[in-house]
Specification:
The structure holds two protein chains of two kinds. In chain A, helix 1 packs antiparallel against helix 2 (27-47). By secondary structure, chain A is an all-alpha fold. Chain A is built from seven helices and no strands. The model of chain A has no long low-confidence stretch (mean pLDDT 81). The N and C termini of chain A lie far apart (66 Å). Chain B has one domain: Helix Hairpins, CATH 1.10.287.3510. In chain B, helix 1 (5-25) packs antiparallel against helix 2 (29-54) and helix 2 runs antiparallel to helix 3 (58-88). Chain B is elongated, with a radius of gyration of 17 Å. In chain B, 55% of the residues are buried. The model of chain B has no long low-confidence stretch (mean pLDDT 89). Classes of the chains: A mainly alpha, B mainly alpha. The interface between A and B is large, with 91 and 77 residues.
Chain lengths: 178, 101
């Protein structure tokens, strides 16, 4: 009963924040609503007994990723911006139709054929503890974990190269411009 | 766990739809990236819900890996956006048409 109450509260918060992210005109507010969305999801994870993932969600998403987002918004001067002249005609209607189709598909999938009642024998919270997740992560998925580390390294190197703008071009241009 | 797994899956589907709508409708590339994050989070929610519902920790390990990949994706995507903004002076995807014939 208490679980249901918290599920409704945080689920509603997550959905409303997601709608806000999409509908909000100001990019900065979109980013801040995205933080709310991620925090609600972290609360839902903890509600499900996945404590480790809930904490990781807060640290990684609400911490690191959102700092990146907000930093970029500030850097680019998050003004609303005027509507562009070149506009795809019927974009909204087409998007609504496509999303409605996807919605019907997902509703059929979740409501119809899937029957996902768990075995229910284990005590809840056992499977989401740090020990349980680490056991799976470092035994069965060790290689995937190591590959993730490599991916992050490559991403860092790529980002530094991209933002630096190549060896000579951007810097030379800046010097000539200034 | 007193909340049925299917409720979590429905919530996840709803969040995914909202994110997809954002990607299709919005034209600010930053908001598009944020909508992609909403979709990734929705998938993570369904992974964790199934993992908790079936009492198997594999789904949570996978969700953790998805988080790491999403962080890398955001970093590279934002670097691309900053570079494009430097060259083109815009973050509107309709104004970025260098490859249009």
């Amino acid at each position: 009963m208490v679980d249901m109450f918290f599920f409704v509260v945080f689920g509603l918060a997550a959905v409303l924040a997601a709608i806000g992210v999409v509908a909000q005109r100001n990019v900065l507010y979109s980013g801040l609503l995205l933080v709310l969305n991620m925090l609600s999801l972290a609360a839902l994870y903890i509600l499900m007994g996945a404590q480790f993932l809930g904490v990781a969600q807060i640290i990684v998403y609400a911490g690191a990723v959102m700092v990146l987002f907000l930093f970029t918004v500030m850097l680019l001067g998050g003004r609303p911006g005027q509507a562009s002249a070149a506009r795809l005609r019927g974009q909204g209607a087409l998007a609504a139709v496509l999303v409605a189709l996807l919605g019907v598909d997902l509703a059929l999938l979740v409501g119809g054929s899937l029957h996902l009642t768990g075995p229910g024998g284990a005590t809840p919270g056992q499977v989401g503890s740090v020990e349980a997740v680490a056991q799976v992560l470092f035994e069965r998925y060790l290689w995937a974990f190591e590959a993730t580390g490599l991916l992050l390294l490559v991403a860092v190197v790529g980002v530094v190269y991209l933002v630096r703008g190549g060896p000579a071009t951007a810097r030379g241009k800046d010097r000539r411009g200034g | 766990m007193s909340v049925p797994t299917n409720y979590y899956l429905l919530l996840s589907a709803l969040l995914f739809l909202i994110g997809a709508l954002g990607v299709l409708v919005r034209r600010n590339v930053l908001v598009i990236l944020m909508s992609i994050e909403v979709m990734l989070n929705a998938v993570n929610l369904s992974l964790v819900a199934l993992s908790a519902g079936r009492q198997v920790a594999d789904g949570q390990a996978l969700a953790l890996l998805v988080m790491a990949v999403a962080a890398a994706e955001v970093a590279v995507g934002l670097a691309l956006i900053v570079t494009i903004f430097r060259h083109q002076g815009t973050v509107d995807v309709d104004d970025i048409h260098l490859l249009k014939g």
